[in-house]
Design goal:
Layout (H helix, E strand, L loop, with lengths): L1 H27 L5 H6 L1 H28 L7 H11 L4 H8 L1 H9 L6 H32 L1
Length: 147
Amino acid sequence: MPEFQYARGRVVETIQYISEEMKEFNAEYASKTREDYQNDKRLQKLIDRTVENILTAFIEVCGTILSEEGTGVDSYGDAIKKAAQKFKFSEKEQENLARLAVQRNRLAHRYLNFRWEAIKAFKAQSLLIVKLITSVLGKEKEERKQS
């Protein structure tokens, strides 16, 4: 039982981190264009790292909530998809979110030709990310009340 309590606390903490990072992204980077990105190496690093951190934490949250219930996954994308499925997201939403795992890998492994595409994909799916972490947070709060 202590592992479950720890994981639950970790989920809330990680969601708070994601929320803070997304606020920073929206305030500082969301309006940047491809040209801004390409012309400023420092900006590239900041945007890449911020989005990579968000997506890595997002994958962690998805994996943690699934492991709490004993659901196995085959990949990062599978973890995201199964978490979205758990919260009754549509098949299209599940697929769109699952593709973010590929985008995270592009940033983490510095695939130079695809980094801006990864940023665009993140921006396009950011509302779905918020929707899923909000659902997870609601579940965590409900479970705390029942404990």
